[in-house]
């Protein structure tokens, strides 16, 4: 048992590590133009620093329940920090793009393990009636970190080289590592089992499927691309079937049969798509369409980030008072309205208008992503929470990766016309339709007033 002071130090160290690593997901969006010049690559190639990052995360997330059940959480957390440090150092010293991409891959391994794990730990050490508020705090960490990534990146890039951004991560993670040595505890009950390596191999299908989607916007459909798609679909089906057949599956997919958990997974995924796409696309829109510098494009994300942070705490308390369904409906309506405004007025919005719309979208995210995650976890037995959070975060990252890939495809395809802004116009319309689907799911959600 931990004392109150030890618990606070534990949670602080855990969330600070998560916050810093989460920043790394979105920090490069503001640096894309600079990195394209440095490595002499085009936009679809440099985008793999983000898409590839999220793909590798998706491979590691299903492994997190096994790691939590079989390893000391303190040792696992320290190892994750060390892997992230190594990857960051590789990026700083990278002489070419492939080495930088490999470094990002190591960072993604660390983040992919930590993201589902920290949520499982928080919900395990928190009573059911307090989870909504605690997960609101977790949402504050994840959401505000994603939104703050381009802000920090823009400020650093305005004064020093792009390597300075990664020196920042290197220093902060080193300090967290020292704190973790003293403050981390083994809080998870262990249940040793054999790691299903076959399922891990099958999970590589995630990379193949999203690689195919990403290449659709930059290349013609060739025989190798078709083969990648066919093999990936076969492996994906095999992965799903195996989870229902083996005694100790990598992911306990049976939890998707639990009422409200399946809709909760989709809703948190749709909300995450909006957050990550805004975080990636907005800096590009600011710099390419509105012609502002990286510093301004980063600072323009400050107001939405602040609002997101505040509303993440509010949403947890609101869910406790009025129920998850009403909270989720509020969020989905905000998401639909935000994308609709972007679509209708995309030819006329200035920086201030874009900021206001970003506030609506990111505010909507606060009322959907973590409340939906908490609602899903509350519907599961305690021993299934690690599997539930792993499934939620895996689907969330898959949908996020798909969202970024589709956004780039639509923007590039539309940019082939007379005006580059047309691509952004079409992209805004696509995501508006997507969030309307999410709103329908929230409407048909079973009333949870008796949580």
UniProtKB/TrEMBL annotation:
Gene Ontology molecular-function annotations: transmembrane transporter activity
Subcellular location: Cell membrane
Organism domain of life: Bacteria
SUPFAM superfamilies: MFS general substrate transporter
Coiled coil spans: none
Cross-referenced InterPro entries: MFS, MFS_dom, MFS_trans_sf
CDD domains, alphabetized: MFS_LmrB_MDR_like
Positions of transmembrane segments: 47-68, 80-102, 137-160, 166-183, 195-213, 225-242, 263-286, 292-314, 326-345, 351-377, 398-418, 424-445
Keyword annotations of the record: Membrane, Transmembrane, Transmembrane helix, Transport
PANTHER family: MAJOR FACILITATOR SUPERFAMILY (MFS) PROFILE DOMAIN-CONTAINING PROTEIN, MAJOR FACILITATOR SUPERFAMILY MULTIDRUG TRANSPORTER MFSC
Name of this chain's protein: Multidrug resistance protein B
């Amino acid at each position: 048992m931990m004392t109150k002071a030890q618990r606070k130090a534990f949670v602080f160290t855990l969330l600070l590590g998560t916050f810093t690593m989460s920043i790394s997901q979105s920090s490069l969006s503001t640096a894309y133009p600079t990195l394209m010049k440095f490595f002499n690559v085009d936009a679809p190639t440099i985008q793999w620093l983000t898409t590839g990052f999220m793909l590798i995360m998706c491979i590691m997330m299903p492994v997190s329940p096994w790691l939590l059940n079989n390893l000391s959480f303190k040792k696992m957390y320290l190892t994750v920090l060390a892997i992230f440090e190594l990857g960051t150092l590789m990026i700083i010293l990278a002489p070419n793009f492939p080495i930088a991409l490999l470094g990002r891959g190591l960072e993604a391994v660390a983040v992919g393990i930590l993201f589902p794990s920290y949520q499982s730990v928080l919900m395990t050490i928190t009573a059911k009636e307090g989870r909504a508020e605690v997960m609101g705090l977790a949402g504050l960490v994840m959401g505000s970190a994603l939104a703050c990534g381009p802000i920090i990146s823009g400020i650093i890039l305005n004064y020093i080289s792009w390597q300075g951004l990664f020196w920042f991560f290197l220093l902060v993670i080193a300090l967290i590592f020292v704190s973790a040595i003293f403050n981390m505890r083994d809080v998870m009950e262990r249940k040793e089992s054999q790691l299903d390596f076959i399922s891990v191999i099958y999970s590589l299908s995630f990379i193949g499927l999203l690689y195919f989607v990403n290449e659709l916007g930059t290349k013609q459909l060739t025989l190798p691309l078709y083969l990648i798609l066919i093999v990936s679909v076969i492996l994906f089906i095999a992965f799903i079937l195996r989870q229902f057949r083996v005694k100790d599956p990598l992911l306990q997919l049976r939890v998707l049969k639990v009422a409200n958990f399946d809709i909760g997974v989709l809703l948190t995924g749709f909300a995450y798509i909006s957050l990550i796409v805004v975080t990636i696309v907005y800096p590009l829109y600011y710099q390419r369409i509105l012609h502002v510098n990286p510093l301004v494009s980063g600072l323009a994300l400050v107001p939405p980030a602040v609002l997101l942070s505040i509303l993440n705490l509010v949403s947890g308390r609101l869910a406790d008072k009025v129920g998850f369904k009403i909270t989720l409906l509020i969020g989905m309506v905000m998401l639909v309205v935000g994308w609709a405004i972007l679509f209708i007025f995309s030819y006329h919005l200035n920086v201030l208008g874009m900021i206001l719309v970003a506030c609506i979208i990111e505010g909507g995210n606060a009322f959907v992503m973590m409340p939906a995650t908490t609602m899903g976890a509350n519907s599961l037995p305690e021993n299934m929470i690690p599997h539930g959070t792993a499934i939620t975060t895996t689907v969330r990252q898959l949908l996020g990766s798909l969202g970024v890939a589709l956004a780039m495809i639509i923007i590039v395809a539309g940019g082939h016309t007379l005006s580059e802004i047309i691509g952004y116009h079409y992209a805004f319309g696509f995501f508006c339709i997507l969030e309307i689907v999410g709103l329908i799911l929230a409407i048909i959600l079973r009333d949870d007033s008796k949580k």
